[in-house]
Amino acid sequence: MMKSTIGRAGVLCSGLAVAAATVAVSTGTASAADNGGCGGPGYAYVCISRNGGTVDYTGHTDFANGATGTIHLWLWDYTEKPGGVRVFTTDFPAATGPQDYRPGGLANPAPGHDYKAEMRVDWGGKKVDVYLSPDMFA
Which of 107, 105, 115 is nearest to 137 (CA)? Predict the structure, then answer.
């Protein structure tokens, strides 16, 4: 008798945990789709957002002294074909310390299209780190 009561309580608790996780994931996805967001760790991340009728995308790095390389900041449209279509490509030299990279935005984005920003940090051909923003639906 005791075993079945503990078993039922365990099933109930696990069911509540799954329901809470589902609500949290659903809310986060809707929020990111409507308001944009950022992806990547604190020292290197890329963001996408809406500013009126424009989709803006920016990159941010905070590298230690002596950082050399190239920042590739791209805006993708994943609606047109599998794998996406690169809408904009902008390159910046990597900077030491806190640095924002702002290439401008996409004015009048196509309604219903799925946009995503990507930042690639190319460390002189030795290594490439890739960071992606959440999806932004216009």
Answer: 115
With a CB cutoff of 8 Å and minimum separation 6, the contacts of 35 are: 49, 50
Q: Where are the beta strands (DSSP E) in the chain?
A: 37-39, 44-51, 54-63, 70-77, 85-93, 97-101, 105-107, 114-122, 128-132, 136-137
- Structure token digits, residue 4: 């079945």
Work out the average pLDDT over 4-32.
Answer: 37
Tally the residues of the chain.
Answer: 138
The model's pLDDT over 30-76, given as tens digits with 9 standing for 90+, comes to 333 456 899 999 999 999 999 889 999 999 999 988 788 999 999 99
Q: How far is CA 57 from the centre of its chain?
A: 10
